[in-house]
Give the backbone structure.
Amino acid sequence: MIDLRSDTVTKPTAAMRRAMVDAELGDDERDGDPTMQTLERRVAELLGKEQALFFPSGVMANQAAIWLFAGRGTEVLLDVDSHIVEGEIAGVAALSGAQVLPVHGADGVMTAADLRREMRPPSRYSPAPSLICVENTHNTAGGRITPLAELRAIRAVAAERGLPVHMDGARLWNASVASGVSLAEFSDCADTVMVAFSKGLGAPVGAALAGAHVAIDRAWTARKLFGGAMRQSGMLAAAALYALDHHIDRLAEDHENARTLARLVAGAGGARVVPPDTNIVMIDLAPGDTADRVAAAADRQGVRVAQWTPTRVRMVTHLDASAADCERAGTVMRRVLTDR
């Protein structure tokens, strides 16, 4: 079975498991875990931030960043199709008491022009804006990269209103490898940045939030409040450290495999493929076809895909899917889309 539902389905490699077993451990909550401290310093350095903090999940790290900046009764501006809106169970409202103002991107992903167009004018009758969030790469848009120039323009709009920016960079590693822009250059466009280890990097668990010392010190409180206190977390940190050393550059292979999938599937049965920037391939089905039918038919032929909407399926390449696997998966999907 070739599982392309997500890059979260990856399993730790044998070498990563050995690194986990051999990790030096401590109590992160009390005295600090030495391996975790090494990871947090490494992430802060890579992202060009003062400090980083490990979280059990990217959702928790995103919500901690929002909790830092968004006071109760304020408004968070972000892309209407962002993960924070679509995949975090109204956490902005539930955990921070704020609401979201969804920004509709004219070209599928929020730009500075979109943001400026949809920001409310200051008014005593409207909720005050407190935070702008960006997502890079953008999952629902098909792993699309927001270019550095656009991120800087969004940062400038935020500065005009005195607003901080948080970046959901769960797949920022992919954006950096595909674009050649450094992680630090991307991160410079935001006050806080979340990166995940459990997607393309192949670690079993975890994410990190990076920013200024004062922000990350408060984020520790948010993590505790949200139930994310760590103990002997060095085993998880060791997996992430191994991934940073061995799995970043190879993301280019996933991007090439995604292009292979797109080439094989494009046009089959009238389906339209969103050209992939990175490792996510979104397939919009022909009129009358359904994601339910396509996913079930592909599964019977040994390929698992995600049902994204009733008429869209998603395929994500990763380190557990070889080039040969992706060739086969693309051939299967072409047949499934054509024979209906």
In short: DSSP finds 14 helices and 13 strands in the chain.
